[in-house]
Each structure stands twice: as C-alpha cells, then as structure tokens.
Amino acid sequence: MAMTPNRPSVPRDSDRVVMLFPRQRRTAGPPMGRRPLIKRMADYEMETDDDFRQRMTNNMLAFLVCAVLVVAGVWLVTGIVELRKVQDCALSGRSGCRPVDVPIRAASGQF
Fold first, then answer.
1. Prediction pTM value
2. How does residue 26 score in pLDDT terms, banded at 50, 70 and 90?
3. Which bin fits 93, alpha (ψ -120 to 50), beta or left (φ > 0)?
C-alpha cells in the first residue's frame, strides 16, 4: 500500500492566486460611531491662579512626613536586628547575652 501525503488534493495544473489589497489608512481622529476616550485637554486645565506659597508648604510637609517615616523605619530595623542577636545568643544556651549597664562611680579612692 502506497503512502499519500496529508495535503488536500488539488490538481497540479490549476494555480491559485490570492489577491492582496493594501490596508486603508486611518484618518486622524476617532473611528466613526465612537466617542473619544479622553476629552479635550482644555477641559482638565485649572483656571485658577496657582498659589506658589501653599504648594511649597505642602511640599515641605510631605518631605517631613517622608523623613519621619524613614527615621522610624531605620529605628525599627536596628531594634529588630539587636533583638534577633540577643535571641540567637539565648537560644544557643549561652548566658550573659544582654549587656548590663553598670554606672561608673566617681574616683574617690574607695571601692
């Protein structure tokens, strides 16, 4: 039994021609029947005078809030790192993991 290819049977003497047409270019603007996604930019512009002093005050307050957040974050991270070191020391079975603050006496000659 002879093997046949899995191609559709098309007579060899007939040629197929596929007509390709160039794409039609769109004109500037929205397609017919659709409304634009955004309106004119003039509708969104503010018509009031910009208060420079108020804007700078807001910028300074925002900067201060960000600075406070950064300082608080650094403080929390250093506290967590110190706590982790103490816990690692205690869990390993060592004693004296936490440093003890001893007040220094004035040198009076007596102990």
1. 0.45
2. low
3. left
